Known about the structure:
This protein is an alpha+beta fold. Helices cover about 40% and strands about 20% of the residues. The model has no long low-confidence stretch (mean pLDDT about 90).
Amino acid sequence: MANQIVEAIEKALADAQVRLAAATAPDAVEAVRIDLIGRKGLLPALSKQMGSIPPEERGVTGKAFNTAREQLQQMLDAALERLNSAADADAAGIDLTLPGRRVDVGHKHPVVKVIDECAEIFRRMGFMVAEGPEIEQVYFNFDALNTPQDHPSRDPGDTFYFSDGRLLRTQTSPVQIRVMESHEPPVRIVAPGRCFRRDTPDATHSMNFHQIEGLYIDKNVSLADLKAVLRNFATEMFGPEVRIRTRPHFFPFTEPSVEYDFSCIMCGGKGCNVCKQSGWLEIAGAGMVDPNVLKNVGYDPEIWSGFAFGFGIERLAMMRYRIADIRWLYENDVRFLAQF
Ligand code: PHE
């Protein structure tokens, strides 16, 4: 008999639970309360049957009533709470059924990602990161870099000048001078940053672009050291299958000067439209630091020697992410940028 009463109590609670979950208004909650613990409710009716059960079972049954009352009160409170907060939201004009507002999380621009990646690769080879100003003096951008007065890159048709004679740096090479003037050798730095040239924009040219400069000054540094560093960089950046080659070139601040090519990462060197069927992509200018440059910063070229190199960051980014047009990097179109 007692077990039957306990069972009936449990069933009443389970039913109440279902009804409360479905309740959409406080009236429905009140109805559940009346049905269960109202004057003519289920629990009072059941408790009337207590008299007919054997005394030794009354304790258990009584306990079941007490816990049922407590539980029911908690269920009723929770149901009312739920309906009230929905009503509050409603009154405040908030529609809880609307989807949430998405927060778009930004990320690094592909140019910045490549700069970070390069800096990390060179950091592992012992290079520290240095920086210089984008608005630069002619002295640092040209003169101290051994650039002859009649060198075409000085022309206002190629370089942006300010009326006070300063300019927007055309390369990151002036950072070489700034670092050497303020530090005693040995020096091992890379200097990423923005550069500017008066170019007409097309698929591979932008008036505003980035380079990463490298400078290594020590005793007994040779072209073989430069080659090893660039070989290692190519492997870290594009994998061991990428081949590198050097071609003789001219820069005022290096002697000898070379240009580094990487085998085309699009076609593996077979020839495609990206490498213009040559199988190679121009990737960096480099060379042994000209003794005149060392003299300009007060280093003794009889003791110290070194190499320098400069990569075009956009070039690397375009290879890395297979981007066909440099201008896409500067249009701020999120449909493009979100892909990286
Ligand atoms: N500054 C050169 C350029 O912009 C690249 C370079 C850097 C070449 C360092 C040699 C050494 O073309």
